[in-house]
Amino acid sequence: MMLFKRECKATFALLLCSLSACLLLFCSCGKNDQPDDVRAVMACVEDIFRSQLSKEIKCVDIVNKQEVAPNSYVGKVIFYLTSEDNVYKKGKYCVVVSYEIVSDNVVVNPKLETMQALAMTENDAEFERILKAEKEKRIAAAEMRRVEAEQKRAEEEKAERARIEAEQKRIEAERVAAAKARRQRLEQLLQPMVRVSAGEFTMGSGKNAHKVKITKDYYIAKYPVTQELYSLVMEDNPSKFDGADNPVENVSWDDAMAFCRKLNESKVGACPEGYRYSLPTEAQWEFAARGGSNGKGFWYSGSSTVGEVAWNLGNSRQMTHEVGRLKPNELGIYDMSGNVWEWCLDWYADYPKQAVADPAGPSSGRFRVCRGGCWSLGSGHCLVSCRNYGKQSFRDETQGFRLVLVPVQ
Q1: Does one domain contain both 138 and 235?
Q2: pTM for this one?
Q3: How far, CA to CA in Å, does 53 sit from each of 46, 48, 120, 124?
Q4: Domain count, the chain
Q5: How confident is the model at residue 120 (pLDDT cuts 50, 70, 90)?
Q6: What is the mean pLDDT of residues 299-318?
Q7: Model confidence at 50, in pLDDT bands (50, 70, 90)?
Q8: Which CATH number do you get for residue 394?
Q9: Same domain, 194 and 128
Q10: With pLDDT > 70 as the criterion, what percentage of the chain qualifies?
Q11: Which long-range contacts (CB under 8 A, 24 or more apart) does 48-55 make?
Q12: Residue 202 Ramachandran class (φ > 0 left, ψ -120 to 50 alpha, else beta)
């Protein structure tokens, strides 16, 4: 605290010097432990405040940051604060306060020399000049803090933008990597395609038997479409039985064709130039199931013993199984008998009586053909000559499909 009384300038200058010299002692000594000169200064200060200053004065303990009574020095530095810029002026007395300004969490301590100058001057104009200069310093300091805060905020915003950009790049990189891995896995799953050379065979059996000629080579999948392959393309798995390598089931003819269209649009897989993915025609399916031109006349696809090649009512335990676990047929194709029924491209109709080339069924109808038998039915349904049919919207846990690659027409 700095004080002056204009009638007793010399006296209060002395008090000021004593007070300035003993500030450190105020911070460390209790009231009863203070030396005589400190107690004298404190008593003088207390007397002036009691007799001359208004009730607007507040005494604040800087150590504990709390308001105290004017005479509760308890050996600590006391700040006398008022509502007029921390300077109280009444009549011939002026108290200039040593104080802290807390603004935006920044503590500002006015210099002791400024307070001494204010306390020592007798000229009102000089007093106002010094006080104005102190205010301007505080304004400048506040402006500097504002600018620094703006700069800090700008830096934080820039850092946040950089963080968001880096996060977006990371997410995009992960997306690209995931898409690449998905495409690579999809190509791996599509690669096992078996070439079926053009040829002739007897289609059907008994009174329905008739000669069929396949005039163009085609490729047929080594396995039925698995749940993993279907999920990669359609981002969905409708199957009842869970297993990445199990055949997908519970799919309709419409679902199977949608799968083929999406696969063709994605342009992935080992698809030779001029070919496209599709469902096999019934003739293509049976020719491949019989082993093509290598066929040995087996009842089932690859054997005349159903349990060697087909998951059926006798060995399936009422569920689908991983593809490729039983014996393949003469072309190296698996599961063409049993496991799941496989949709064909054709509308269902009676066989023609005469020999035909590349038959594709009638142009319209009520049902679509499905072939091969399934896990829930007996061996008779697994014969390579057995036919079945269903509405193209029909879904069931016994219905799956197999891909072919055929020439683009």
Answers
A1: no
A2: 0.63
A3: 10, 7, 18, 19
A4: 2
A5: very low
A6: 97
A7: very low
A8: 3.90.1580.10
A9: no
A10: 67
A11: 48/3, 48/5, 48/93, 49/80, 49/95, 52/90, 52/91, 52/93, 53/88, 53/90, 53/93, 53/95, 54/88, 54/90
A12: beta
In a domain, residue 12? The reply is: yes
Let me know whether 315 and 388 are in one domain.
yes
- Partners of 210 in the β-ladder: 203
Distance CA 332, CA 328 (A): 5
Cβ–Cβ < 8 Å for 372, 248: no
pLDDT tens-place string over residues 123-155: 556 656 766 777 788 788 889 999 999 999 999
pLDDT computed for residue 186 by the predictor: 87
Residue 153 lies in a domain: no
Side-chain-facing half-sphere of 211: CA atoms under 13 Å: 6
Element (H, E) at 13: helix 9-21
The answer to whether residues 125 and 257 belong to one domain is no
Taking the CA of residue 21 as centre, how many other CA atoms within 13 Å lie in the half-sphere pointing to its CB?
A: 10
Instruction: Report how far apart, in Å, the C-alpha atoms of 101 and of each of 61, 87, 97, 105, 384 are.
Output: 14, 13, 12, 9, 95
pLDDT at 251: 98
Closest CA relative to residue 406, chosen from 265, 215, 247, 237: 215
Lowest mean pLDDT, pick from 111-125, 346-360, 375-389: 111-125
In a domain, 172, yes or no: no
C-alpha span between 335 and 249 (Å, rounded): 14
Q: Cβ contacts of residue 230 below 8 Å, gap of 6+?
A: 236, 237, 248, 251, 259
Indicate whether 214 and 132 sit together in one domain.
no
Residue with tokens 């805060």: 149
Q: What is the chain's mean pLDDT, rounded?
A: 76
Tell the residue number behind the tokens 């020592």, with chain if given: 120
At which of 143, 176, 204 does a domain end?
143
* Helix (H) or strand (E) run with residue 89 in it: strand 87-90
Decide if 245 is inside a domain: yes
pLDDT-wise least confident of 131-140, 181-190, 389-398: 131-140
The rounded distance, in Å, linking the Cα atoms of 285 and 292 is: 10
**The tokens of 178 are what?**
């995931």
Instruction: Evaluate whether 400 touches 249 at the Cβ level (below 8 Å).
Output: yes
Which structural domain range is residue 389 located in? 189-407
pLDDT at 187 exceeding the cut of 90: no
Note the pLDDT of residue 179: 87
**pLDDT greater than 80 at residue 386:** yes
